[in-house]
Amino acid sequence: MTITRTCRSVALATAAAASLFAATTPAGATTPATAPTAAATKGLAAIQAAGAAATANRTRALDAAIPRVTANTALSASDRTTVLATLTNDLAAMNTLAAKIAADTTVEAAEADYKSIFSTYRVFAVALPQSAYAAAADDLTDTTLPKLVNAQKALAALLAGPDSGKDAPPVQADLADMSAKITSAQTLIAPVAAAALAVTPADYDANHAVLTPLRQSVANALAAAKAASADAAAIVAALQ
Amino acid sequence: MTPLPLAIATMLTAAVALTACGRPGEAATGTPNNANSSAGSSASAFSSTAQAVDPAGSPAASASSAAADLSSVQAALSAANAANAQAGADVSAGDAATAQSDSP
Questions:
Q1: Domain residue spans in chain B?
Q2: I need a labelling partner for B48 at 20 to 30 A (CA). Which of A4, A113, A154, B39 fits?
């Protein structure tokens, strides 16, 4: 796969260089002796411009994400430390790469640096989504589900005690469904944060869908928690 | 009636005063409050007395307790829903990042 990506990239760079060259060299005209150097210079400039845009785009995204992660109380302390280490490392790398690509003097060097923006860091494909899915998982694990468990226990106690007169099969069905949904959400979400934060750019290069099942687990757990909350609201309404 | 000697009268007055000791808030809730260490032991003793007089199992206390529990359930559900919404926003942020091209 690495060979495929490299070949495709080289082909694109070659095509771009050819296009730039064609624009300045009419078909059939005699190629001046200095043309290859001019084409290379324009190719280098194009790669440097693309590199500047790509690093700036990622720098903006990281600059926005880092304060959000720092302020996100849903993230566990250890996960926040892991996420911030990745994001700040990527931010520093983008700044370094931006300067390096701007200073490159050959197409080959610029292209290698340009490709590393993507293959080495995967800011959009890995770093940002993995931190977001981990935050969602921590939120569910540490806040949403414990609150729902407490509510379920309190409702069960009320139905078994002071409010036993309001107990009825539909209420018990809601209570049972609430328990089942909480258990389902707990099972779905348990492995997500650690698994998401363990994904590397290399993992993504080997499998571009590596984060997909984790994202799906978060979505399914969110839906289960929402259903459990709806069950609880129905029980509360029956007890009022 | 023969008048009580002064010493005995003084002791009885002191006993009545001690029995009336305790803060109204403690009597209403029956909750020990040992925040002031100097009053701690007498407050605890008074609280025990108050619980004996107004047991939690009375109908009024049960209704009050149930209402309080429902309120706590609703508060827990509100917190759970808010956390769920935050988690959903996090997933959306991750999706937005994923939607951007990360290939040369």
A1: 1-54, 59-95
A2: A154
pTM of whole model > 0.90?
no
pLDDT tens string A200-214: 999 999 999 999 999
Interaxial angle between packed helices A35-71 and A77-103, expressed in degrees from 0 to 180 and rounded to the nearest 10: 160
* Residue whose tokens read 């009580």: B4
* ipTM score assigned to the predicted complex: 0.78
DSSP state of A190: T
* Chain A contact set for B100 (CB, 8 A): 57, 61, 124
Q: Give the model's pLDDT for residue A119.
A: 92
Q: Which residue has the tokens 């940002």?
A: A128
Q: How confident is the model at residue A116 (pLDDT cuts 50, 70, 90)?
A: very high
| Residue A162: partners with Cβ closer than 8 Å, 6 or more residues away | B62, B63, B65, B66, B69
Q: Is the pLDDT of residue A39 over 70?
A: no
For chain A, which residues make up each domain, given as ranges? 2-121, 126-239
Q: Do B73 and A151 touch (CB under 8 A)?
A: yes
Using one digit for the tens of pLDDT, what is the confidence trace for A162-174?
Answer: 899 999 999 999 9
From chain A residues 112-131, the ones with a CB under 8 A of any chain B CB are: 114-115, 117-118, 122-126, 128-131
Name the closest residue on chain A to residue B80, using Cα atoms.
A144
First to last CA, chain B: 111
CA atoms of A80 and A32, how far apart (whole Å): 58
Query: What is chain A's mean pLDDT, rounded?
Result: 86
Is the Cβ–Cβ distance between B26 and B43 less than 8 Å?
A: yes
CA angle centred on A226, ends A220 and A228, rounded to 5°: 105
Can you say how many angstroms the Cα of residue B54 is from the centroid of all Cα atoms in its chain?
15
